[in-house]
Amino acid sequence: YREAWDKDKTQISIPSDTPVMLQSKVNALNISNKHYQKAWDEAKAKSYDIRADAIPIKQAKASRDIASEYKYKLTHEKEKGHYVGCKTAQEDPKLALAARAMMLQNDRLYKKAYNDSKTQIHLPVDMLAVQAAKECQTLVSDIDYRQYLHQWTCLPDQNDVIHARQAYDLQSDAVYKSDLEWLRGIGWLPNDSPEVKRVKQAQDLLSDNVYRTPIDSLKYTSVVDSPDVLLAKTNAEQVSIVR
């Protein structure tokens, strides 16, 4: 139904010189960013020439030199060493005085002569103080104090050796307790002794199996002619359908 109408919609043609079309083209140019920057892009594409002695270039170089710390301190670095007024630091009286003051304040240099003279003291060998020191060293020496006796050898069958061995055996704790060590662990008591009977009686008193007899180990049967049994039998005969 709409097939002919859909075909006609796609085949509509408007002349390009109508006022509406012309106005739309002008509006498109006005809002186009590319057309707006066309002249600027063409100017950028062209080459340009700036001389080295141009004012902007000189101003940029001067600003860079002023901002540079090297250029700022160049004069100071060149004039270093010209303020002393002497060829060397040793010729300057102020520097020499400062070095002398530092040497006087140095404790190592102050005691250098004293330390050198300490090692050059000479004393006579027969001096009383030296003799007294040697004698005192001999008295306190552990080597001279402990003089080991000669290692004597004795025959094993001498009376002194035999007597010493017997004295050592009498004083020896191992020999004194040897009988106890031999008897330890081999004690024995008869079965009918009072001690054994007392222990067995105590075990029977403390035994839970003897004190509490299990109920399942007892044999019992229910009473046949008890009132409950007789009543149950009477009720069974009364409700019996066979009877």
TrEMBL record:
What Gene Ontology molecular function terms does this protein carry?
actin filament binding
| InterPro entries recorded | NEBU/NEBL, Nebulin-like, Nebulin_repeat
Assigned keywords, A-Z: Actin-binding, Repeat
Pfam families per the UniProt record, alphabetical: Nebulin
Q: Where are the transmembrane segments?
A: none
GO CC term, one of those recorded: Z disc
What's a single GO BP term from this record?
Answer: cardiac muscle thin filament assembly
Span of the secretion signal? none
PANTHER family the UniProt entry points to: NEBULIN (PTHR11039)
- Descriptive protein name: NEBU protein
Organism (species): Psilopogon haemacephalus (coppersmith barbet)
From which lineage does this chain's organism come? Eukaryota, Metazoa, Chordata, Craniata, Vertebrata
